[in-house]
Design a protein that fits this description.
By secondary structure, the chain is of the alpha/beta class. The chain has a single domain, classed as Stationary-phase Survival Protein Sure Homolog, Chain: A (3-Layer(aba) Sandwich), CATH 3.40.1210. It contains eight helices and eleven strands. Helix 3 links the parallel strand 5 and strand 6. The longest helix is centred in the first third of the chain and has 12 residues. The radius of gyration is 18 Å and the shape is globular.
């Protein structure tokens, strides 16, 4: 199996190293990741300047070919497909330092790279975990991979978003939730503001483990099949 690994935390991130190392058991691994952290870039791309692409020795001790790109996660995929090839069997993005659930999926550079891969016709899996939990999350990659494959996951979907809590109690297929945090903008003086977030959803009340947010906050690994199609088919049917 030929595997492409990327992320949004940068070529030197811990999560990328753990994921690339794990992927070696599945096949031949190539890493193409941003030069610097690109969190929150979603599926944004660089169109107003040339960007640097260089070989990197960040993962040379693993025997993994790696490239650093001074652009966004989606650009890593776009460059790869155009200049290296689109014959990868699978794309992994992560392991992200921070969960990507509900509406937050729209902001995530980690998930954005997986979406871009899917646009190119490649199967993709984005992987995220709670802050400072990368090594523990990596221990669950075998179980998550088996969970998807044992249930014929790729026969039904070509894009999965995986989120791993601190101490998983198991794994569940889920659907995308809504909003679980809000931003509060704090004045820093000189007309400058800094965004600080606060959680708006907890497990003190009705819990729906079929929703990605509730599942992860309740201690379950969440595996959500996603689609790049944004048409509201129910509305379209009525409008037609």
């Amino acid at each position: 199996m030929k595997i492409l690994v990327t992320n949004d935390d940068g070529i030197n991130s811990t999560g990328l190293r753990f994921l690339a190392d794990w992927c070696r058991k599945l096949g031949e691994v190539t890493v193409i990741a941003p030069k610097y952290e690109q969190s929150g870039r979603s599926q944004g791309i660089v169109i107003d300047r040339p960007f640097e692409v260089v070989r990197s020795d960040a993962l040379s001790d693993l025997g993994v070919l790696a490239y650093s790109i001074d652009a966004a996660p989606a650009d890593c995929i776009r460059y790869t497909v155009d200049r290296i090839g689109d014959d990868f069997d699978l794309v992994f993005s992560g392991i992200n330092n921070g969960i990507n659930l509900g509406h937050d999926i729209a902001y995530s550079g980690t998930v954005g790279a997986a979406f871009e891969a899917n646009y190119a016709g490649l199967r993709a899996v984005s992987v995220s975990t709670v802050f400072h939990n990368i090594p523990r999350a990596a221990e669950w990659l075998d179980a998550v991979w088996a969970f998807i494959n044992d249930r014929g996951g790729f026969e039904f979907a070509s894009l999965f978003n995986v989120n791993i809590p601190q101490e998983p109690r198991g794994i569940r297929f889920t659907e995308q939730g809504t909003t679980f945090y809000r931003d509060h903008f704090v004045s820093q003086g000189d007309n400058k503001y800094r965004s600080e977030y606060y959680i708006t959803r907890d497990v003190d009340g009705a819990v729906n483990l079929d929703i990605d947010i509730d599942a992860v906050l309740s201690g379950w690994c969440s595996v959500t099949p996603l689609t790049t199609r944004r048409t509201d088919y129910a509305a379209l049917s009525q409008l037609r």
